[in-house]
Write a structure and sequence with these properties.
Layout lengths: L3 H5 L4 H6 L3 E3 H6 L4 H9 L3 E5 L2 E4 H5 L6 H13 L5 E2 L1 H8 L11 E4 L7 E3 L2 E4 L8 E4 L2 E4 L1 H12 L1 H13 L4 H8 L9 H9 L7 H13 L5 E8 L2 E9 L2 E6 L17 H16 L4 E6 L8 H19 L17
Helix pairs in contact: 7-8, 8-9, 8-10, 8-11, 9-11, 9-12, 10-11
C-alpha cells in the first residue's frame, strides 16, 4: 500500500521543480494523482494550501520567512491561477525584487492588467488598470514584472508617503538613481495620489540604512525645523562616533532591536546586551559633551498610530537643544568627519 511519502516521489514533482515549489491541483491530477491522494496530502499536513487550488510541500513552506519568503510564494501561486495577461506589480513586485517595504494590511497580491476597466479585488488579488511602458517590464523567472522604479511609484500611490519612502529608500540603496525614480512618476502627473510618491522620492536617502531610519528621516523632514543631515560623524583623539541624523545641534538615533541582540540570536552584536547598552551610554555622553542634544527613536515610535506623538516629542527636544546651545555647528568643524560612512 502506498504511503503519503511514496505519493510525493511521482511525476508531479516536475511541476514543483519548475514552479518555485508549487503545483496546481489540476496539474497534480494530470500527473496521475487521484483526488483522494491530493486531499490526503493536504489533510495530513504534507502539503500546504498556498492559495485555493495551489499547494507547496510543508518543508518548502516552513523554510520560508513570513515577511518576504511566504508573501513571494503567494505571488507566484497567484500567477499560476491567473490566466489573463498581467504584470506582477505594487507590493507583489517588491517581494519579487526583494525590495524592503512596509507590510500592508490586508496583504494582497497585486497584478496590473492593461485594458481592464477599473481596479477590483477578488480572492485576495487586486487587479489594477494602468498604462505600462515597455521599458518598465522586466522578466523574473520568465514572468513579466514591473521594474523597481515603477514599483516604487505604484506603492506610493497605493499606500501613501510612509510606504513610498521606505520603498524609495530601499531602491536607492540598491543603486537606483533618483532620476530613474522621478522618471517613473513623470507619466503619472494626472493620476490619483501621485503626490505621495513624488514626496517620497525626494525625501528618500541611500544613507538611511534601513526602513526605520528612512521613516525617521521622513518624520524629521515633515517637522521643518532645519536641514536633516544623515550619518553625522565626529572624531577626536582616535575616537569616532556616527549618529543617524543631525538637525542643528540636535542628534537623532534610530535604535533597532538587532543592535542589542547577539549574532547567534539574529542580531548584530558580538557582545552581551549589557555591554552594548553601556557602550551606547558612553558614546552618547561623549557626543553630548560637545554641547549637543540627543533623541532616540525605536520602531514603535515610527508606526502610524504613534507618528504624531513621536513628532511632537522630537519637536520639543530639538527646540530645547536650540534654546540651550543654538543651531550653528561651526565650532565642530575641527572634529567633523567629511568622508562617507562605510
Amino acid at each position: 500500500m502506498s504511503t503519503l511519502s511514496d505519493m510525493q516521489q511521482a511525476p508531479h514533482l516536475h511541476y514543483m521543480s519548475t514552479q518555485h515549489g508549487l503545483i496546481r491541483r489540476q496539474q497534480a491530477l494530470t500527473a496521475g494523482m487521484t483526488v483522494k491522494q491530493v486531499d490526503a496530502l493536504v489533510r495530513h499536513g504534507e502539503w500546504v494550501v498556498v492559495r485555493r487550488g495551489v499547494y507547496a510541500t510543508r518543508a518548502r513552506w516552513e523554510s520560508l520567512d513570513p515577511y518576504v519568503g511566504r508573501p513571494r510564494l503567494q505571488v507566484w501561486a497567484a500567477t499560476l491561477t491567473t490566466t489573463t495577461p498581467h504584470f506582477v506589480s505594487h507590493d507583489s513586485a517588491a517581494y519579487v525584487h526583494d525590495l524592503a517595504i512596509l507590510a500592508a494590511r490586508p496583504r494582497l497580491v497585486h497584478l496590473t492588467r492593461v485594458g481592464v476597466l477599473g481596479c477590483r479585488t477578488r480572492h485576495g488579488i487586486k487587479h489594477h488598470k494602468a498604462p505600462v511602458g515597455t521599458g518598465q517590464i522586466v522578466f523574473v523567472d520568465d514572468h513579466p514584472v514591473l521594474d523597481i522604479p515603477r514599483t516604487v511609484a505604484d506603492i506610493g500611490r497605493e499606500h501613501g508617503v510612509r510606504h513610498g519612502v521606505v520603498a524609495a529608500g530601499s531602491a536607492s540603496r540598491r543603486g537606483i538613481p533618483r532620476s530613474a525614480l522621478r522618471a517613473a512618476i513623470e507619466p503619472m502627473r494626472n493620476w490619483p495620489y501621485v503626490t505621495a510618491p513624488r514626496l517620497a522620492v525626494e525625501v528618500a536617502d541611500p544613507r538611511c540604512e534601513n526602513p526605520g531610519e528612512q521613516l525617521t528621516m521622513l518624520m524629521l523632514s515633515q517637522l521643518g525645523l532645519g536641514f536633516v543631515d544623515p550619518q553625522f560623524g565626529l572624531q577626536d583623539r582616535g575616537r569616532v562616533a556616527w549618529v543617524d541624523f543631525r538637525v542643528g545641534r540636535h542628534l537623532i538615533e534610530f535604535d533597532g532591536r538587532h543592535k542589542y541582540q547577539r549574532r547567534e540570536a539574529g542580531g548584530y552584536a558580538d557582545r552581551t546586551p549589557e555591554e552594548v547598552v553601556w557602550d551606547e551610554k558612553l558614546r552618547q555622553d561623549w557626543l553630548c559633551g560637545y554641547k549637543l542634544g540627543m533623541s532616540r527613536v525605536v520602531w514603535a515610535d515610527v508606526q502610524e498610530d504613534s507618528w504624531r506623538a513621536t513628532q511632537d516629542r522630537l519637536h520639543r527636544e530639538i527646540l530645547d537643544t536650540a534654546a540651550r546651545f543654538g543651531t550653528s555647528i561651526e565650532d565642530l568643524e575641527p572634529y567633523r568627519i567629511r568622508r562617507p560612512r562605510r
